[in-house]
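INFO batch 0412 | record 1 of 1 | parsing
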Amino acid sequence: MTQKERNKVIIRTSVVGVVVNVAIAAVKIVAGLLASSIAILSEGVNNAADALTSVLTLVGTKLAGRHPDAKHPFGYGRIEYLTGLVIAAIILVSGFQMLSEAVKLVFNPEPLAISYVSLGVVAVSAVVKFALALYTIARGKAASSEALVGVGLECRGDSYVSVVTIATAVLFLLTGISIDAYAGIVMSLVIIKAGVEVGLKTVSELIGRPGEKELAAKIYALVRQTPGVVGAADMMLHNYGPGAWSGSVNVEIDHEKSVGEVYAFLHELQLRIMHEEKVTMVFGVYAVDNDHEESKRVREAVLEYVRQQEHVKSFHAIYLEPGTNRIYCDLIVGYGLKDWDALRADFTAYMKDRFPANEIALTIETEFV
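INFO prediction complete | emitting tokens
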């Protein structure tokens, strides 16, 4: 799906969401007022908020599609994430307002005037909202739009909340017992939870989450199958909005390759990644010597050490610098390792015991994807 096709999907789905939510909100608010039901009225207000979130998704998509300029050379794609924050805030405000009204009703109950007609309205709207949720989530996944998926999940949650409303109404009609206020509290908490989840996910995008594993795996495969590349590690992927990625990766190259040879296949690889995965990649180059007997001994020693360490995931960039006694090595560690200095001291002692004449130049790092 091209960016233009993606935008069309998001816009079309958002328009459908606005129309459906406005219609449902109007019907529920009227039904809630006639029945004096805080639960039904709360649902109507929530549906109105859903319509607004669809509008914001539409506006955010339009703004995010602006072309890069001198102030923002990577484009405006992250506006979609800012839109997500605004949507989260709206959901939270709506949820807390409902919670406030429901708590007031607990201490100052009002008589219900619910009927089977209003109950039918809620039931029909629940079915419509569930269908809208399935449609929105499916289109959001197809367009790789977290905003749309979030709106769809919220719609699905609303349909579940409607089931609670129906249950409380049936209980009242059959027994005369009203738990409407308590149902309103439950529904408001569900809405608040949804707002918190949307907000946390969006904030994670803005702070900088790990690169997509599937995308990273595809790029690693392209790099490692390239003739001339011995190995690859330390990939970083930077996201500038949905579908907008740039990144870097360190590649291991035989130390006897000339600069001209390295340029030829890395430049071709860069263009291939851009064409196939739409990612702008730059390369860091590590020289390696896998044929020298001393290099093999060093690699075997490091491999033995890594196997004994819980928090060390892998290693790379082993190189004996010609004309010196320096051994270079990079260790990849997990985020559970807190004391990097202790690891550095332990590894250095381990290597010095086996290669006492050599200087150990160790780099410790984590994976970014």
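INFO post-check: The mean pLDDT is 85.
INFO record closed
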